[in-house]
């Protein structure tokens, strides 16, 4: 069985970010999300930054992320490449920028 990042380090901050593309914007959203990956993986504190699509809804995307601290995640959220992309969310997402749901999680078992 493959291990997850929190298997070896329970102190990691896990993040699940969910968003759904407006009709007709699925490919544009996916391309924009994929473009974030290389820069984000190079950021200090990023352990993994995995993009997923819902199996039953190709318009709904999720990032599964692990960070070494909340401060490192906050720095990521303020990074120029992410701020630039966030400025496009009103055009790309159902419910605009409010359609991005970010949940911070701590592993307990």
TrEMBL record:
Gene3D superfamilies: 3.30.70.100. GO terms for molecular function: monooxygenase activity. The keyword Transmembrane does not apply. Residues 13-101 form the ABM domain. InterPro entries: ABM_dom (IPR007138), AI-2_Isomerase_LsrG (IPR050744), Dimeric_a/b-barrel (IPR011008). Pfam families: ABM (PF03992). Keywords: Monooxygenase, Oxidoreductase. SUPFAM superfamilies: Dimeric alpha+beta barrel (SSF54909). This is Quinol monooxygenase YgiN. It comes from Actinomycetospora corticicola.
